[in-house]
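Lab meeting tomorrow. Look over both lines:
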Amino acid sequence: MTSFKFVLRKSKKRTDDTIPIYLRITHNRKTSFIATGLSVIEPQWNANKGNVRKSHPSANVYNRRLEQILREAQNLATTLRSKGTLNAESIKKNLKGIDHTDFFAYAWQIADDVNARGQYWHWKNLRATLNKFADFTKQRTVSFSDITPEMLRRFETYLRQPKSETGKGNNNTTINKRMKMLKRIFTIATNEDIIKYEDNPFRNYKLPSAKSYKDNKLLPDEISRLEKVKLPSESPLWHARNIFLFAFYCSGIRFGDVCQLKWDNVQNGRLIYSMSKTKQTKDQKLIPAAIEILKKYKPEKPGNFIFPLLSNEKDYSDESYLRQQISSKNAQLNSRLKKVAELAKIKPISFHASRHSFADFARTQNLSLFSISKALGHTDLKTTQIYLRQLDTEVTDRELDELWNKKSEK
């Protein structure tokens, strides 16, 4: 007798808490498992019925796919039985309906899972990675076995080449992010038995280094020039400079949080808000420089946004829409900051440089690791140590330069 049942393989639980769905095939007390390419968090799974609960945003799509796989497995079992070759392994080997040899088909299923969970930033980065990889391969169907370490190196070169038909003009940070995304897909495929461990091309491929931390921060004299540069009041560049400096003065507050700050987050000289990334409450004293910036923006209602980034007239209850708007405003602000930096005669900057600049300033002023970690809103000291690792090297370089300069002056 042959039986089929969809189950969660909890031993293969992912770091994002999703668990892959497998089809369990049992024949004559022998069992085999085959991945469906779908995954859910445990509360969204009905173990008794072997399907996805309605609480999952794509429940109907997932369940239709599972029904299709089950029908194909049952039909295949009938065919194999007539040939006298029916067993659990033969069904697994011949079940074409869930053949995941196509990298893109499998990768886009993962992207759909990410999107269904409302992880907008992750989905956005994954989508960009897959589209660029498709541009590189010039096709939408690529076998897992065709992706070799040599192909990965060529893709890295393609990303780095000046923007044209043969390149994307990406910087080191973006290239590192794209390659990490691809590596993650292969890791999931390996964990879900889609490919064998020894067939993972990332075993013999070294990820390119990300952009150096020190390249994306401002030194105190550069912050001073940014503060002093003359900009037309109420202009887009004036607002961009104010928002960047406010983030710096507020311990490197993240852009998504700056966007959502409202006047009722300012209480008795303190800034109190819930951090979007960690959901933890941040409560810190506002320094005079930050208060001076707030004085430039007159509050109309306690529930209004402080800075002119998001609209007080729009509904942002849809998390996906909110993330899209924040992403758009971030790109817009970064474009303006480059113009401000040029006028201030400092290196080009993005908004995130405000966070790195604060961390650098705090470290060089001998603030303790614990205090820096708390100010940045990290939940783990190890995260802060990694964040400042490059900075330690730079501080050493700077102090050695000062040491030898003093020697030469004697």
The first helix runs from residue 59 to 83. The CA atoms of residues 68 and 97 lie 8 Å apart. The mean pLDDT is 84.
